[in-house]
Every structure is written in structure tokens, then in C-alpha cells.
TrEMBL record:
Keywords: Cytochrome c-type biogenesis, Membrane, Transmembrane, Transmembrane helix. It is found in: Membrane. The keyword Transmembrane helix applies. It is a multi-pass membrane protein. Coiled coil: none annotated. This is Cytochrome c biogenesis protein ResB. InterPro entries: Cyt_c_bgen_Ccs1/CcsB/ResB, ResB-like_domain.
Length: 689
């Protein structure tokens, strides 16, 4: 029984010993460092902590899910990255614990127990004979050691004397500093990681909020008090003239709210642009007020120039819209087409309305003051043109489906014609398409909308058609035939307005096929039908101009008419029952601030300093040992030594070529000072193969 217990204990010791050896092995450390290096490269190349929709659009559904599962969108806080840091910390600490005591003993020891046989077996070793007394040899050896910067000790033992010397003990300190620096850096990194937050969340102390709520409505269990021990990196958007005292920290698929010990008020936001419309520089004028002391600090921050206060850093990271106030006309495209209603809105707010029994929601998303786009100039060269301000909004129906629009405030000139632009994105990731509505003589939508309202009015179109029929020789007779012809023409105009030119052609072909006409007559009738529709459309347009007090029809009006007809046929595919025409705005900008607190940064800097100094010691300080053993080689009749054999040996922890030369110079000089006149018996350094 006792034997079995001892065997079991040996096996346990053997297993624990193997695990400890593996944990402190260089191979494990290199593997862990390689994984961390790869992860750091990924974190540098792949922009971190962006909205998931941006990643979904860039990578597609499959790779988005793969990268999300691996946690690459927040790689420095993902569980496996923190686990590797902990493992590397354990490995480095174990190496430090295992080797530091031995190194400390080594740099204090002179190894005065070295024997003759072991010294002669050294790679760097030579021996010679001396006629000088042992005391003289020891004295001169110590003098030479002192001259070369070695610390030496002398030990007398059984008829022989050993002089042991060493220098460069700081090399061993370098090993300790290098590993200790790694430990300190890892501890600092873990302090500033999200491990603290994840632990609180795992213990149920902090709950992750996933809803888009105002700060006042976020539950208390999703708030972190100011002055927490761990570091954090949060963000907050504050409009001009507003203030905030929290930062939002992304965690899992939601966020937690970090309360700050001060208030941040944005007094003003400034931005400069390049000719291409890209931001050149932007900065914020801030007022920081300490909640406890009332201390007030006013400072302007810009990119890479943060405001620092009591361990907190406030960075200028982004900008956006802070709730620009909008004025717009909502033109009806269906129902009571051509009528408008003056409304107001605000970025990041919604407006709901009912149309034909269906509920719609206008979600104002963004406002852009400058829209610089490449265009072709008069000489054919491409140039940058500012299209002016625009508003981006989504129209969401009762089923939750949304179409995104980007409508411009001012008409834009294309090839001599000015258009009101409306960019349409029917679904996420789809290419933006544009609706071009020609501007009238007054650079407004009034003429087009009035013309469009006339075409959508069935009674008005029928009246115009009847007037045209009455002016024909056959139509002058009046009666049911004239009314039927007018209704038929109105039907064709309605088909053109609702479905486009191709649908009109199909309708005419069906009507002609029912009459069973010869091909020549059918073609003439087809062309005649199109001319009649064209005449009705032109008459409707002329009456629209006359209603506006315009009597003279110009080439500009003719061009407007042709382009307006192109727009009319695509409005059914526009996807919205109204056209939002922005007319005015009060621009309010928002500054995006990144608030960080990094108590571990001090330890990272300290560890980096220790690591640098330690590497310097390891590479540039040589840890060397030299021994000189003096033994009697012959005695006289009185038993006194007549001459001595001197064994010189040395070792260098780095085993480099420099020590070959240093050992040769030392041994040559010692032999010159203490050796016999005839040195032919002196042995040279043996091969170190």
C-alpha cells in the first residue's frame, strides 16, 4: 500500500512538473506572442467598434457572421484575446518565479569551489608555470582583475589558491527586468481592457442595455459610477449649445453608461473642408465643469489634441448633425396631387402621417451642408461642384419597410438645365438612383407640380381632350361620339401618366387589334393616337403656363415640357406618396467625443521602460567569470614549492567572439606578469568545437 501511494505521488509530481515546465517554456511564450501579434495586426487593419451595419455592407452576410463570431470587430476586448493575455501573464510570471532566485544567487556567488579538472575542461582555458611565489601571483592577479573591472575573491584550500572573479552581473538583472516589464505591461493592459466590465456583467452587477433609449430612461443597473478602478473607452455625441455628463461604452450587443464626474458643454463646433468637400479639420470649444469642486475649464480640442483632466482624456473623434431644424414642403404625388403643405422637422426625429388609409413615418436621418461631386465642365474636363445642402430621410410604411431618400435644397445645373435632385436608395446596400425634376423659370417646383396635378386630374384631362376633339372636322358635330373620343383619349393619357410610354403603346396596339385594320392603316392610326396624346399633354402644359400668367412660349419652355414628361412616367416607381422639398434650415452640429480613462497606462509605460532597460542590459552587458588556480608544481628539500602551475579559465554567458579576444588578452597579460621566462610549456586555448 505504501509503495502504491509513493508511486501515485511521484506520478502527480511528475505531471505537475511537466505542466510547470511547459508553462515556463520559450515555445509557449513565442506561440502566445505570435497570436497576439496577429490579433494586433487585425485590430489595426480592421477598424474597430464601428456600427454593425457598416461591417454587414462591407463584408456581406457570411463573412460578417464569421468575423462577428471571432470577435474581430472589438478584438482587443474579445474573450479569447484577454484569455491569451492572462495565459501569457501566467507563463511570464512563472518564468520569473522559477529563474529569478537562481539568477540572484548566481550574481552574488563567486563559485569558489571550482576544481582543477573542471577548470581545465572549460572551452576557454589555458595553463602555464610560474617561478613566483603564490602570494605574488595572487597579488598580481587581483591587480589585473581590478584593472579590468572584475570583482575578485581569494580562497585558500589544501595547498592551492583559487582567485575567482566576475563582472557584468547586471546582465542577469536585465533578464529579470525584461520579464518583469512584460508582466507589468500585461497587467496594465488588462486593467484598461473590458475584462472588469465583463466580469461585472457575468456576476450580474451590470446589465447590458440593447435598446436605443435616452440617458434618463436607461435603467440604473446599466450605469457605472464615476471613479471606477478599471479603465474604459466610451463615446458621446453632444450638439452645439448642449451638455453631457456620461459616456456610452459598447459591450456585447449593447452598451452600458459610464457616469462622469464632470459636465461637458459644447459651446461651438468648427469645421473646414477641402475643395473636394472632404473634412480638412474640425475642433470643438468645450467647457468642463467639475461636479464636486465646481472648477471650470474652457479649452478647444481637435484631433490628436485632447483635453486632459484628472486622469480622463476627452478626444475629438467625429462629428455629425445635432438636430438641424428643417422647413420643407410636402407635395402630394397621389390623391390630391400637386398640392403642398408647409411642415417642419428635425434631424433625428420622426413625423407620422396617414395617406389613403395607410400610415407612413418620415425619419429624418442626416443633414449635409456641402455636397461636392465631380462633374464635367464646359471644356470637357472634370471639376468639383458643390450641389449645396441636402437632407437624408427614410420613409417607412406600416409594414416597416423603408426607402431612403436624399433631397437637395437647391436646383443643380446639368447641361444647361436646372433640376431638383432626389436620391433614392430602395434597400440597404443598393445603389443610389436619382429623380431629376426640372426647375421652372423661377427655380421652383411650382410649374412642374401644377402640370403634374393637371395630368392626374381625370376630369381636367377629359375636358382638354374634348376641346381638342371639338376642333377637328369630325368632332364639330358633338354628341356621344365626341364624348366617347374624349374619354378614350383621357384613358390613354392616364395610362401614360400612371404607367409610362411603353404601357401606352401596348394599350393602343390592343385597341387597334380589336378593329382588325390593315397594317398600313393600323400604323397610321397608331401614330395618330400618339399625336393626340401629345397634343393633350401640350395643351395641359400651355394652360398651366397661362394660369401662371405666362403668355409667350419659349424654347426653354419646350425643353422643360419634354423633361417634365420624362419625370411624370417614373414617379409611380418613386416609392413615396409625397415629395419632400426642403426649403430652409437652422444648422445645428454635433461633436463626437471619445472619453477615456486609462489607469493602466502608467503601468504600461513603466513596463515598457523596464523592458527597454532590460533588453539593453541583456544585449550590451556581458556577464563573465574568470578563475585563476595556483597549485605547487614542485617542492625543494624543505617541502617548499619551487614553482607553481597556474590554470586560467573563463566563461561568458553569451559565448560570443568578443570573449575569445578578451580571454586571450587577459591570459596573455597574466602570463606576462607572473609566468616564467621560458613560456614554451604554456598550453593554448583548446578547440571549442
Amino acid at each position: 500500500m505504501t509503495s502504491q501511494a509513493q508511486t501515485a505521488r511521484k506520478r502527480r509530481r511528475s505531471l505537475s512538473s511537466r505542466l510547470y515546465t511547459w508553462l515556463t517554456s520559450m515555445n509557449l511564450a513565442i506561440a502566445l506572442l505570435s497570436i497576439l501579434a496577429i490579433a494586433s495586426v487585425i485590430g489595426t487593419v480592421l477598424q474597430q467598434n464601428q456600427p454593425f451595419n457598416d461591417y454587414l455592407i462591407e463584408f456581406g452576410p457570411f463573412w460578417f457572421e464569421v468575423f462577428n463570431t471571432l470577435g474581430l470587430y472589438d478584438v482587443y476586448s474579445v474573450g479569447w484575446f484577454v484569455a491569451i493575455l492572462l495565459f501569457l501573464l501566467a507563463s511570464t510570471s512563472a518564468c520569473l518565479i522559477r529563474n529569478t532566485p537562481g539568477f540572484m544567487r548566481d550574481i552574488r556567488s563567486f563559485r569558489l569551489n571550482a576544481q582543477d579538472k573542471s577548470l581545465r575542461a572549460f572551452a576557454h582555458s589555458r595553463q602555464y608555470e610560474s617561478d613566483l611565489p603564490a602570494a605574488t601571483i595572487v597579488e598580481r592577479t587581483q591587480g589585473l582583475f581590478s584593472q579590468l573591472g572584475y570583482k575578485a575573491r581569494v580562497k585558500e584550500r589544501e595547498g592551492e589558491t583559487l582567485v575567482a572573479a566576475r563582472k557584468g552581473g547586471m546582465n542577469r538583472i536585465g533578464y529579470v527586468l525584461t520579464h518583469l516589464g512584460m508582466v507589468v505591461i500585461l497587467v496594465g493592459g488588462l486593467i484598461d481592457s473590458k475584462m472588469y466590465l465583463k466580469t461585472l456583467n457575468m456576476l450580474g452587477v451590470v446589465e447590458v442595455e440593447t435598446r436605443d433609449l435616452p440617458v434618463s430612461q436607461v435603467p440604473e443597473e446599466s450605469h457605472l459610477p464615476p471613479g471606477a478602478l478599471a479603465g474604459f473607452r466610451g463615446s458621446v455625441n453632444i450638439p452645439e449649445g448642449k451638455w453631457g455628463d456620461v459616456a456610452f461604452i459598447g459591450l456585447k450587443d449593447g452598451y452600458v453608461v459610464q457616469n462622469l464626474p464632470f459636465k461637458i458643454e459644447v459651446n461651438d463646433f468648427h469645421i473646414e473642408h477641402y475643395d473636394t468637400g472632404m473634412p480638412k479639420s474640425f475642433n470643438s470649444d468645450l467647457t468642463l465643469t467639475d461636479k464636486e469642486t465646481g472648477e471650470v475649464i474652457e479649452e478647444t480640442i481637435r484631433v490628436n489634441h485632447p483635453l486632459k483632466y484628472k486622469g480622463y482624456n476627452i478626444f475629438q473623434s467625429s462629428f455629425g448633425d445635432g438636430g438641424t431644424e428643417l422647413e420643407f414642403n410636402a407635395w402630394q404625388l397621389f390623391g390630391d396631387a400637386g398640392t403642398k403643405q408647409a411642415l417642419e422637422g428635425k434631424i433625428n426625429q420622426e413625423r407620422t402621417f396617414d395617406f389613403n388609409g395607410e400610415k407612413y413615418t418620415l425619419e429624418f436621418r442626416d443633414f449635409s451642408l456641402f455636397n461636392v461631386n465631380p462633374t464635367e465642365g464646359p471644356d470637357g474636363n472634370r471639376e468639383n461642384t458643390n450641389f449645396g445642402p441636402s437632407v437624408t430621410f427614410r420613409l417607412r410604411d406600416a409594414a416597416g419597410q423603408a426607402i431612403e431618400y436624399e433631397n437637395y435644397f437647391q436646383p443643380v445645373d446639368f447641361d444647361g438645365t436646372r433640376y431638383f435632385l432626389s436620391g433614392v436608395t430602395p434597400e440597404v446596400g443598393a445603389q443610389q438612383q436619382f429623380l431629376f425634376i426640372p426647375a421652372d423659370r423661377n427655380n421652383s417646383l411650382e410649374t412642374f407640380m401644377a402640370f403634374y396635378a393637371t395630368l392626374k386630374d381625370r376630369d381636367e384631362v377629359t375636358r382638354i381632350a374634348a376641346d381638342l376633339v371639338a376642333q377637328t372636322p369630325q368632332g364639330g358635330q358633338g354628341g356621344a361620339a365626341q364624348s366617347a373620343a374624349a374619354r378614350s383619349i383621357a384613358d390613354m393619357v392616364g395610362t401614360f401618366v400612371e404607367q409610362g410610354f411603353s404601357a401606352l403603346g401596348e394599350q393602343v396596339d390592343r385597341q387597334l387589334a380589336e378593329r382588325d385594320m390593315p397594317p398600313e392603316m393600323a400604323e397610321q392610326a397608331r401614330e395618330s393616337s400618339f399625336r393626340v396624346v401629345q397634343s393633350v399633354l401640350m395643351r395641359a402644359f400651355m394652360e398651366t403656363l397661362q394660369a401662371q400668367g405666362i403668355e409667350e412660349f419659349t424654347d426653354q419652355d419646350a425643353d422643360f415640357f419634354e423633361k417634365a414628361l420624362d419625370v411624370v412616367t417614373v414617379i409611380p416607381n418613386y416609392g413615396s406618396p409625397i415629395f419632400v422639398a426642403p426649403t430652409g434650415f437652422n444648422h445645428i452640429q454635433s461633436t463626437g467625443l471619445e472619453v477615456t480613462r486609462a489607469p493602466g497606462m502608467f503601468w504600461v509605460y513603466l513596463g515598457s521602460l523596464m523592458l527597454t532597460v532590460g533588453i539593453f542590459m541583456l544585449f550590451y552587458i556581458h556577464y563573465r567569470r574568470l578563475w585563476v588556480l595556483i597549485k605547487p608544481a614542485g617542492v625543494n628539500d624543505d617541502g617548499q614549492p619551487t614553482h607553481h602551475r597556474v590554470v586560467v579559465a573563463g566563461t561568458d554567458a553569451r559565448k560570443n567572439i568578443d570573449f575569445d579576444q578578451a580571454f586571450a588578452q587577459f591570459s596573455d597579460e597574466l602570463m606576462r606578469q607572473t609566468g616564467s621566462n621560458d613560456q614554451n610549456d604554456a598550453s593554448t586555448t583548446p578547440d571549442k568545437g
